[in-house]
Specification:
56% of the residues lie in helices and 4% in strands. It has 4 helices and 3 strands; from the N terminus they run ααααβββ. Strands 2-1-3 form a 3-stranded antiparallel sheet. The chain is globular and about 45 Å long.
């Protein structure tokens, strides 16, 4: 993902369309649905990381660990908004998750991330815009853009599963973007600087 002159937003980005198959409620409902979805994804990726490690795919295990942590960032952002709107709301418990073969886990992960970036989050962004909830628009937009990169990372790892390198993955602590390798200065989604990123 290239760094733009301006931080990408729902208003200045043209890849905000969705397929329209995601069920949409109020923005509060959508935030809760996103928290539930991200909680499941985070647990799933943690299980996939364990499986990858056991199967000898250390770099892919680190990618799954980074993505699991990225989903926790999204959960935190969404939970903060829900808490403002509905004090006392409790996050759902993480479901039990298991990993399969690493190649299949990468495809499963990519499919989930593609759904979020091309269907779920665009629908939630549109609803938040209709309701005038600018905080939710920003949180959903950043999550949407990060999920597209997660899908890209998973597909690249799938294609190179038998030709791994030693590159480090770097996680943006603000929006959950994941960069592979050293060649960056800041996050292309929120402009957080490299020195604040977490290495995996």
């Amino acid at each position: 993902m290239k760094v733009r002159d301006q931080i990408p937003t729902a208003e200045n980005s043209t890849n905000m369309n969705g397929f329209g198959t995601c069920e949409v409620g109020t923005t509060l409902d959508n935030l809760k649905a996103a928290i539930a979805g991200e909680t499941g994804a985070s647990a799933k990726y943690a299980a996939f990381a364990k499986a990858a490690k056991e199967q000898g795919y250390d770099q892919i295990a680190r990618l799954f660990e980074a993505t699991s942590a990225a989903e926790q960032i999204h959960i935190g952002l969404e939970y903060a908004l829900v808490s403002e709107m509905e004090p006392g709301y409790e996050k759902p418990a993480a479901p039990e998750a298991e990993g399969a073969q690493t190649d299949l886990n990468l495809i499963t992960g990519a499919n989930g991330e593609i759904f979020e970036t091309s269907d779920m989050y665009p629908a939630f962004i549109k609803k938040a815009q209709e309701e005038g909830n600018n905080k939710a628009v920003q949180v959903f937009t950043r999550a949407k853009l990060a999920e597209s990169v997660h899908a890209e990372r998973y597909l690249a790892a799938y294609n190179d599963i038998d030709a791994a390198d030693d590159d480090t993955f770097y996680l943006c602590p603000i929006c959950g973007y994941i960069h592979k390798g050293e060649d960056f200065e800041r996050c292309p989604i929120c402009f957080c600087t490299k020195d604040k990123f977490r290495a995996f």
